[in-house]
Structures are given as structure tokens and as C-alpha cells.
Specification:
homodimer; EC 2.7.1.140 (chains A, B)
Chain lengths: 294, 294
């Protein structure tokens, strides 16, 4: 089995201080090391529960990575890893963004130390103000013909305006490193809009979150991805935008108390409103162009 | 002008330590003292802004008390009061519940002392877990022919199960002080259900909150009320259930940053799910009765 480091990881843990990072094989599988302090065990517990939960409808299941169990991996000190679907396997030039959902990333059952750490990060980022924060992204730059990835420290400090700009950059054809240039959001309607676009997928997830009481998705992320290869070939409408939920180390069963995950849902509604705003401003500028044409 | 203490106040400030409490007149107006530490001024600011905001649609405006300005009130040390519509004026035997919305009642702009105080209350109540907490209620007891109002200290300690029970008691015909008796939820379909019921009104509010970015309703309450007189006269379907938003001392303008109030909205979605659960369990027990009848 030939394993290598994934090319387009935008957030989450990486190989560091002798600890293994995630790996991918050439058959479309993603190997995720178990995190410390029972987080890894908790994530396995979630995947086991979710993959056998017959009450999760198929149209919702497709927003989660396929789970292939756990496996001891050679060359990685024989450590046990979670084996998942490699979400980027079928994309050759993917733009990717990781958005951590919820207006709080802590939960009452966690340790006091963890809660305080989360509270500080939540207040310093857009988590409290906007109900989500951008953890990382990588965009294919159509002018430079290369990938552009902002520094994580740069991202940590952004406020609401920065989030709005990042969500525009994510679907723009301009050179992205130039902060002065106005993002053209050229691919907004193809990626965010349409019956199979990001917005439509988010709305489908929202409907499920309005009634599901199985899980509380603390500190989970929404991963957005689309293909740039087809756009380069002139086929903008074949961008295959996709939403996936990832990172379940802090998911809790609701223990049958029947309460929905209002923390994730509130953040999701806010995120939806950001995406909808971009689509609407695109519509307006198209209408303006139409009116100003001779 | 003859002013008196309102009969059915279930939460909020009352006359205490020489400070005036709220008053009502015989023409359907409610006089609310301005709270200290700029909270009163902030509430007036909200009412002035909201009542002149032409972008709030009429079908949403009806969920807010009508605002009649401020007025110095005689016999109350000449203190200035906010003059509002008396929401209970047209009800003779109202059942009333005050539900404080949101999974947090604090906001980053507040003082550190206020934030810490809120955090403690939020974690001790169902605010963090359920996205709302019951601040108070008063129910007309159809067996005892009198009003029943749980002690505020009793309410402070209730968890998710207690909330569920309170929401059933609120629409039940049994004697309410007996904790052993099972609430029959006899009026659930008339009060919570139907095209003009509580659930329909909450869903209308939810739609507005999914896109409104004018105000962030920190520490606001939803007041639910219905009439028992008509039920006593055998007309269950004339209960006139009504949802109103109250308490705007901590409302903030969103300063045009375009973010929805995801904190209120998440809690509202959770509250809607509690109400919907009660209606569904009523449907199921009706269906069972139907099947078991000869």
C-alpha cells in the first residue's frame, strides 16, 4: 500500500513533533490519525454510530465522508488510523475551504481548561459574531495558474468583512494574493448557485438540522470543494461543487433528550445568508451590466 | 389617569426597594420603568428605531408591542417610563409564559462583569443546552378555577425534561400543582396548533430571522399568551393564542455588518422543535384512542 501526504489539506492536524499526519492512498482513501485525549476514540465512536444509524436518510448521508473502519498503518509507527473516503480524490485542481461551524466550539461536558481555550478563540475569531469561522482555504488562481493559500495566522485575525471577502475570493478568477484588486466572484453562480450548488446543498442540510436530535456536532467543520480543471477548459458549469461535514472528535450523542443542535443550525443559517448575499449582489451587478449595455 | 400594578406579570422587574415597577392604565397601555445603567435608554433607542423602520414588514410588526413613546408618570416619583401596548389588555383569564431566547444572553460588547454573570446563569439553566430558558409562567387551572404560578426559584433549576413538562402544563386542563399527575395537554392543538396558533406564528418569525440583519436581540423574550375564558365557555377554538417579543434593553443594531441574529434564530428553531414534539405526540395519542375505540 503506497501512502502519501495529502496535497490540499487546508485545516486540521498535520505531521508534527514525530506525530503522524493524515495520509492518502491511490484508491481514494484518506487515513486520519486518532487524536489524543480520547478525541480519536470519540471520533471513531461517532463514525461507528453514524454509519449504522438507519434513521439518517441517504440524501443526508452523502454530506458525510464514507467510513471504512480503523486500520493500523505501516510506516506510521503502526498507529491506528481512521480510514475514510478521500473527499478530494476525484478533483484534479480543487479549491477547498474549511469552515468551523457554531457560535461556540465548547460544550458544557468538556473540561474547564478546554472551555476557556475555546471561549478565547471564539471571541477572537468570527465564531461568536457570525456563528462560524473560516479555518483555512486554498484557491486555484486562474491568472497565476497555481494554488493560493493564505497563512493561517492571517486567517485567525479576520473579522466579518474579511470573511465576506474570503467567500468572494473563493469563487473569483482574479489574482488572489492582491488584496487591492476587487474580487470578481466570476464563478459564484456556478459554484454557490444552481440546483446542485453549494447553497442548495446547505439548504438541504439545514432542513435536516431543524429536526435531527441524534447528534450535537460541536466544533465540526463544513468543507466546500469545487473543480477548477473544467473551468480552465471553458466549462464553468461542470465545477462539481460539494459540501461535506468533517471533524467529529467533539460530537456528542444527544442522549435522547430530543434537543436539536441549535448551535450548529444557527451558524449554518448565518453562513447560508453570507452565500446568498454574494449570489444576490452578483444578480444585481449582472442586471446593471445589462442596463448599461448599448 | 388611574394606574395600577399589572395582574399577570410572570417575569422581569417588579417594584422593589423604592424603585417603581411596571403599571397599566384602563385604556390598554403598559408603563415600563426605564432600567438602570443605560439599559432603559437602550430600550427606548430600540423602540424608536423599530417603530420608524419602514423595512420591517407589517406581518412581523404585529409580533412586537406597539410603542407610544416615553412619559413622566405621576405618583411614581415623576420617573420617565416607556409607554407600550398592554399585551394582556384584551384577555380576561390569560395563561402567560415568558421564554428567554438564545443559547447565550451575553454579547461581546458588554462589560466583563455582565458577561460572567450571564455565562453562569446560561450554564445553570437550559439556555446553553436548549437555546432558550423559561423565565416565568402563569397558567389558569381549569380544575381549581384559579391561576397557578410556579416559584421563580423552582423554575431556575429546571433542565430539559422540566422545560418539556412546563410546555405541556401550559396547555393542560389538569390540576397543575400536582407534579405526579400526567399533563393531558388538552389544549395543545388549539393553542400550539392550527393556522393561527403559536407554532404557525413562530414559523413566521423564523422566516424573518433567517434574513433580517437590522437587530441582534440579545437577552430578549418571547411571550406566549392565550385566553381561558372562551375555553371555560366550551369554545376551545377561540383561545386567541399570541406570540410577542418583549424586553429590548440589550438589543444591538447590527451596524450594517449584514450578519443575521443566529443566536436568537438557533434558539427559536430549538423552541419550535419542542412545540412540534408536543403536537406530534398529541396526534399519536389521538390516533391510538381512535384505534382502541370499539
Amino acid at each position: 500500500m503506497h501512502l502519501k501526504t495529502p496535497e490540499h489539506q487546508v485545516a486540521g492536524h498535520i505531521a508534527k513533533d514525530g506525530k503522524p499526519g493524515p495520509l492518502v492512498d491511490d484508491k481514494g482513501r484518506f487515513f486520519k490519525p486518532l487524536q489524543g485525549e480520547s478525541r480519536g476514540d470519540n471520533e471513531v465512536k461517532f463514525y461507528e454510530s453514524f454509519s449504522s444509524n438507519t434513521e439518517v436518510p441517504d440524501h443526508i448521508r452523502r454530506y458525510f465522508p464514507v467510513y471504512h473502519g480503523t486500520q493500523a498503518v505501516e510506516g506510521s509507527d503502526g498507529a491506528s488510523m481512521i480510514v475514510l473516503e478521500n473527499l478530494l480524490f476525484k478533483y484534479s485542481k480543487p479549491s477547498v475551504m474549511d469552515v468551523k461551524m457554531g457560535s461556540r466550539t465548547w460544550y458544557p461536558e468538556a473540561s474547564e481548561e478546554y472551555i476557556q481555550k475555546c471561549l478565547r478563540k471564539d471571541a477572537a475569531s468570527t465564531t461568536v459574531s457570525s456563528g462560524f469561522r473560516i479555518s483555512g482555504f486554498e484557491v486555484y488562481d486562474h491568472k497565476e495558474l497555481s494554488f493560493w493559500k493564505p497563512d493561517r495566522k492571517l486567517l485567525n485575525g479576520i473579522k466579518v468583512d474579511g470573511v465576506r471577502l474570503a467567500l468572494r475570493k473563493f469563487v473569483s478568477s482574479n489574482t488572489l494574493s492582491e488584496t487591492s484588486s476587487k474580487s470578481d466572484s466570476a464563478f459564484a453562480s456556478s459554484v454557490y448557485g444552481g440546483s446542485n450548488g453549494i447553497l442548495a446543498q446547505l439548504l438541504e442540510l439545514k432542513t435536516w438540522f431543524e429536526s435531527q436530535t441524534f447528534y450535537h456536532f460541536n466544533s465540526c467543520s463544513i468543507l466546500m470543494v469545487y473543480e477548477n480543471d473544467s473551468i480552465l477548459e471553458g466549462n464553468v458549469d461542470d465545477a462539481r461543487p460539494q459540501v461535506k461535514l468533517v471533524d467529529f472528535a467533539h460530537v456528542l450523542d444527544s442522549d435522547g433528550n430530543g434537543v436539536i443542535d441549535h448551535n450548529f443550525l444557527g451558524g449554518l443559517c448565518s453562513f447560508i445568508n453570507f452565500i446568498r448575499d454574494i449570489l444576490q449582489s452578483q444578480d444585481e451587478s449582472s442586471a446593471e451590466n445589462l442596463h448599461s449595455s448599448p
